Amino acid sequence: MATISVVPSKPWRPKLSRVWPDILGALFTALSSVAIVAVTPLKGRLGFSITLIVMAVITSASISWLRRDRKAALNSVSTVFVYVAAAFVIIPLASLLFEIVSKGIVGFSFGIFTKDMSLTSADSPLSEGGLLHAVIGTLYIVLLATVISTPVGFLASLYIVEVQGRFASLVRFFVQAMSGVPSIVAGLFIYAVWMIGLGNSYNVAAGAGALAILMIPTVARTAEEVLKLIPNDLREAGLALGATQWRTVAMIILPAAKSGLVTAIILGIARVAGETAPLLLTLGGADAINLNPFEGNSSALPFYVWKNYSLGNPESIQRAWLGVFVLMIMVFMFFSLARYFGRAKGANR
Amino acid sequence: MINEENREMRDSMSKIETTSAASSGADIRKEVKPSSLASVAASHESKSKSREIRDGVGLEARGIHAWFGKKLVLEDISLDFAPGTVTALIGPSGCGKSTFIRILNRMHEFIPTAALAGDVLLGGKDIYGSGVDVTKIRLKIGMVFQKPNPFPSMTIRENVLSGLRLAQIKLSNEDELLESCLLRAGLWDEVKDRLNEYGGALSGGQQQRLCIARSLAVNPKVLLMDEPCSALDPGSTLRIEETIRELSESISIVIVTHNMQQAARVSDYTGFFLSDGGPGKLIEVGSTSEIFSTPKDQRTLDYVTGRFG
Q1: Subunit contact A241:B163, Cβ cutoff 8 A
Q2: Is B309 inside any structural domain?
Q3: How far A338 CA lies from chain B's nearest CA (Å)?
Q4: Between chains, do A234 and B136 touch, taking CB under 8 Å as contact?
Q5: In this complex, is the C-beta atom of A348 within 8 Å of any C-beta atom belonging to chain B?
Q6: Domain range holding B159?
Q7: Do residues B63 and B78 make contact, with C-beta atoms less than 8 angstroms apart?
Q8: pLDDT at B38 over 60
Q9: Contact B152 A256 (CB under 8 A)
Q10: What CATH number does the domain containing B142 carry?
Q11: With an 8 Å Cβ cutoff, are A241 and B198 in contact?
């Protein structure tokens, strides 16, 4: 009796004999780019990158053409361009992160989260003082702005998608227009209406109000897109069971859209967490911790960065980098928490 | 198919006592215009007598016209659904069957351009009358959709009981209700150990039976089914047809189907809809055995024998 041994394999993988032209081509691309940069006036990283892209296109196209035909060559060229585009996205972001981490890690210690700057002068070493006051300010501002803009944004999106009221397209138009408002205008609006007009002084709530103006359109637009993705079957199923529209929305639509709605909040926070301009007009700035969000000057991380950077001495500039680093960590933590609590349950179709 | 139908016909014909009773039924139908299921049901006394109806409520459609925008899509449909019967609506796509059953539980009005004329009477009361609480109507007239649509954010248990939550009905014996609904929908044995899993984890056929269980939980008098088996494999279809047969002992069922065998297998009465490019019309209605053996209208005969459509 013959036994057939079956080994799991991946026959679609290219064999080594098929791969070596590609490896040679890649080597040729790299070496020829180096050579071209060496002998021609093209100099520096930029010159090298451009040469590399051009050579990669030429090499991959010729290999594909020789191996198969013109269509394969076109396919190779477009593949190279797609990879280049991906690199254009990843490289700046990665270098930005690298820059922030490498500069920010210098003065990073647990101590900066326990002290503020009230007893520290601008040019004292990084081991003195901290940015607790700015962390607290940012936490307050982001939380307050989220608390204001989430219900408003969600209800606006519900009006557009679920109620489909008479003014739905008008509301959508205004939401879109609002998302184009420059952040300084939001700050000026609060400054003019809330502070000059109504006579309030600098405080965290004013800053949060300005940021909420920026956050509402982001939350509303994203939530609108998410709600539109909920299949109409679910709405009909709810209504056919004898539910009112409100019960259907609250018990079926919103839970089904939960993870997307959390994404809407995350995008809103991402939009405003690093905003500086509105805060310059509304927070007033402080070096000490202010635990009352409704009274007194306060600080926030973007404000702290801006202030220390404009002071200009080496220690301050280091503090500014530290502030950027901490802000990045905080935004990352917001995101992780939101993702954790917003995981889609049972949507494993 | 033919054999299957023939067997079904023999079965249902044998229930009719004499051929003369059947022909007298046809006479009655000629007198009553538009053709009414009630008159047909009357001619099937043997059948009605043998069937014991528990708290059944009949549904009657009177002169239904429906529009989308300016376009008339249904013209003068009158149909009675007697308590405890299964009525199949057949006809080619786009002839208004789905529109018609959506009118029966007031889902038609969710389409912004929709308009309607005519009456739908549930137990003699117009469900479109002023002052009628539409959510109460939909509690009494349940609906199962073409695509299985369990609520993705709810477990199997929560899905079945969702009707109670949605309509804010309080019950003390929820576990009993859960079990009885899943039993009636023919799903209990498959899910009794996994009631806290999400509904989306079930197969398509199980999901559809879950949706049936969900609509049963609010104790409807009438169940409307819009091609409930069109997305399912034959095994799941068979289970759902068994479910329909069991349910028909306690409630009336209206089922839209493109599957002629299914109509022949599960229904007591069949209505044939057709649209000749204009509005959909009810061409013929009668007991399923008649529609499939000796239809009065040539178009019905052509359709059920597969000569067109």
Answers
A1: yes
A2: no
A3: 18
A4: no
A5: yes
A6: 2-304
A7: yes
A8: no
A9: yes
A10: 3.40.50.300
A11: no
Q: Are B86 and B244 in contact (CB under 8 A)?
A: yes
Query: CA of B214: which chain A residue's CA is closest?
Result: A241
How does residue B55 score in pLDDT terms, banded at 50, 70 and 90? Answer: low
**In the predicted model, what is the mean pLDDT of residues A35-52?**
84
Q: Which residue has the tokens 């708290």?
A: B55
Residue indicated by tokens 């009065």? B296
- Long-range contacts of residues A104-112, Cβ cutoff 8 Å, at least 24 apart: A104/A321, A104/A322, A104/A324, A104/A325, A104/A326, A104/A328, A105/A325, A106/A318, A106/A321, A106/A322, A107/A318, A107/A319, A107/A321, A107/A322, A108/A322, A108/A325, A112/A322, A112/A326
Q: What residue segments make up the domains of chain A, in order of their start?
A: 18-104, 132-341
pLDDT the model gives residue B309: 52
Choose among B142, B163, B201: nearest Cβ to A348. Answer: B201
User: Which one of A164, A229, A230, A241 makes the best mutation probe of the B interface by having the most chain B beta carbons within 10 Å?
Assistant: A241
Name the H helices within chain B: 2-15, 19-31, 37-43, 45-50, 97-104, 134-140, 156-166, 174-184, 188-191, 204-216, 234-247, 260-266, 288-293, 298-304
Query: Residues A63-73: what's their mean pLDDT?
Result: 88
Percent of chain A with pLDDT strictly greater than 70: 98
CATH of domain A132-341: 1.10.3720.10
